[in-house]
Amino acid sequence: MLRGLYTAAAGMVTQQRRHDTVTQNIANLNTPGYKQVDSVAHSFPEMMVSLVGDKESPASRKIGKLTTGVFAEESLSSYRQGDLRETGNNTDFSLISSLDLVDPDTGKAMAFDASGKYVNANGEVTYRPGAFFSIMDNKDNVRYTRDGSFTVNSAGELRTSQGYRVLDSAGNPIVLNGSVDTLTVDSKGKLFEDGLPLNIAMGIKVVNRPQELVREGNGVFRAENENIADIRDLQVTDAAELRQGYLESSTVDPTQAMVDMLAAQRAYESNQKIIQYYDKTLDRAVNEVGKV
Prior knowledge:
Layout: H1 2-27, E1 37-43, E2 47-51, E3 61-66, E4 70-77, E5 84-86, E6 93-97, E7 117-119, E8 125-127, E9 130-136, E10 142-145, E11 151-152, E12 158-159, E13 165-166, E14 183-185, E15 190-193, E16 196-201, E17 204-207, E18 213-217, E19 220-223, H2 226-229, E20 231-233, E21 240-244, E22 246-248, H3 254-287
Antiparallel strand pairs: 1-4, 2-3, 5-22, 6-21, 7-8, 9-10, 9-13, 9-17, 10-19, 11-12, 14-15, 15-16, 17-20, 18-19
Helix pairs in contact: 1-3
């Protein structure tokens, strides 16, 4: 009986985390470059139950399998391309990328699905590479973002909406000396002022294994190990480009988010009812049956 309590409690915790993930997505519906997060639940390993101490069959006798509930295993970001929204602001930028990878087993380009995943014949999952702006936080750590809503401060530094410095291709903060009104950036990130090149290019990085990035909040990611994440500079031949005067919209689907939130709420309530049922049963066993 107590095992049922633990199973229902595990279900409540899982649905609570699922609900938190969905509400986080809804809160970032209008955040530029935000990537939807999906909660992944996994069942605990099944246990084999055996009967012991039976006088008729002294040796242990197998009864069957017993499931022990679910747990929220992880939250995965979906790095699919978001829609572009024109702002007309010279310091708003968006990245469009459709990078491909070659399957080493077949020698052919991987056919990524709409969510940016490719599953081979062995069930191994590969995510589509993504292009990111490289930025530097207030402790001089390199970070990555898809949010291109930049501003220029009084010192001419190009900054993100969180105040982080935007880096160029050499890893240095970008500092503008002229007017923002005359700033133009081409599709590969090269900066121009009054039509003249500044010999500066925005630091656009390609992350071949985006699932290795760790979300820090506010659309900012970090790489625990850049070699494992396989991060490199954007090449001219890469299927990625930059658009000035546009922002990438959030990839959150509001309709699906509402459905997921209601489903999590109903599942949470169901587990709650089971716990209440067990509580009443235990109450009767202790206070009524025990008196007999």
